[in-house]
Write a structure and sequence with these properties.
single chain, about 270 residues, alpha+beta, 4-stranded mixed sheet, 8 helices, about 40% helix, globular
């Protein structure tokens, strides 16, 4: 009889422990919901009205100094999965979302809503860019999937509108339109400029840190440069960095950065 009583007491203790654990889990979940509901809004840059989950994942990844492939490796998923998240073609499941937040040092709340612990908005562009307008460029590629991988996953362009035979990208604020065409119909460079870069080519003037970060991403992908990264006119007012790379269809892109952006046109 005493043994039965002890067994009942043990069962009661276990049930009580289970109930306490369930209560703690429920309270934690409720606390998370309360945090989402009542967290102070950010300055709006990453808020729900101005950014998506994909925007926030991309911003946090870049702030952490990771490529899409690097983040994918740490999460145990493919690079295309991370690309799909950042371009809002799919969303991470709850367990991946928690891992993502931990790896990127942001809160789940911030990833979902833009409120709570996250990354700072980008700095205001330098004055020289305030009078400039986005420049649009349309070009041909032999394979749109290759283009999405190169421009989206490697260069970090955001994928925008798409239609049969066309994919648009946001290249550092400038709209690109890639059109599918037979490889033999894609124009070959007509000459090489004095810097050794094929013409025609296109690209962007970046700030110094973005220029260096892009070089690192390209190197991590094991890609070759058309023009190796170089710094010219060291110590002079026009000191600048430059490199060039070709996309999978042979289109050449050149990226430059000026130590002093005010000298970009001077």
């Amino acid at each position: 009889m005493g043994d039965d009583r002890d067994e009942l007491q043990d069962r009661g203790a276990h049930l009580g422990a289970d109930a306490s654990a369930a209560m703690s889990t429920a309270e934690a979940s409720q606390a998370e919901l309360e945090e989402i509901r009542f967290a102070e809004p950010s300055d709006g840059y990453f808020g729900e009205d101005s950014a998506t989950l994909g925007d926030r994942v991309s911003a946090a990844r870049q702030a952490a100094g990771l490529t899409q492939a690097g983040l994918a490796s740490r999460l145990g998923v493919g690079a295309k999965v991370v690309s799909a998240w950042e371009n809002d073609r799919s969303e991470p499941r709850a367990n991946r979302l928690a891992m993502l937040a931990g790896l990127l040092n942001v809160s789940v709340t911030w990833l979902l809503t833009g409120r709570g612990d996250g990354v700072d908005p980008p700095e205001t562009p330098v004055a020289i860019s305030e009078s400039l307008r986005p420049f649009r460029y349309a070009f041909c590629v032999a394979d749109l999937d290759e283009a999405r991988r190169f421009y989206g996953d490697i260069l970090g362009c955001r994928l925008s509108a798409a239609a049969d035979g066309r994919q648009d990208f946001d290249l550092f604020g400038h709209p690109l339109s890639a059109f599918a065409a037979p490889r033999d119909q894609i124009a070959s460079p007509s000459l090489i400029d004095p810097e050794g870069v094929p013409v025609p080519h296109f690209g962007v003037l970046l700030d110094w840190d973005d220029w260096r970060a892009l070089i690192e991403r390209i190197r991590q992908e094991g890609l070759s440069f058309v023009l190796d990264p170089t710094i010219r006119f060291v110590g002079a007012p026009g000191e600048q960095g430059a490199f060039a790379i070709a996309d999978p269809s042979g289109n050449t892109l050149a990226f430059k950065a000026f130590r002093d952006p005010e000298n970009a046109f001077g």
